[in-house]
Specification:
elongated, 69% helix, single chain, Tc1-like transposase DDE domain-containing protein, mainly alpha, 98 residues, 0% strand, RNaseH_sf, 6 helices, 2 domains, nucleic acid binding
Length: 98
């Protein structure tokens, strides 16, 4: 809409951080927002895919089996693999940026 684009183009509006970002930065942390609906740019999606694969292989396809296996599924992905997922996504982001 015209009003939204006009407002978004104003310098003070562009420089205003969202409440979530302000709260996180105020506590001394850094925050990175990824584009919405771009799973190839967010390494957590690969992590979830690995955990879901583990669940499919190890649960008995009932709620009790699911509840028992979720902690093991989360722990089944090595940190080295998570770092590899992150690096892969960073390369894709860099390719988009170029």
């Amino acid at each position: 809409c015209c009003a939204r684009s006009t407002l978004a183009s104003q310098r003070d509006f562009r420089e205003q951080k969202g409440k979530l970002e302000e709260m996180i930065v105020a506590r001394g942390h850094h925050i990175i927002f990824y584009p919405k609906f771009h799973c190839e740019l967010n390494f957590i999606e690969r992590f979830w895919a690995s955990t879901k694969h583990y669940i499919r292989e190890h649960c008995q396809y009932n709620i009790q089996g699911l509840r028992q296996n979720v902690p093991a599924a989360l722990a089944s992905v090595p940190v080295k693999t998570i770092i590899a997922y992150y690096n892969h996504c960073e390369r894709i982001i860099d390719a988009y940026a170029d």
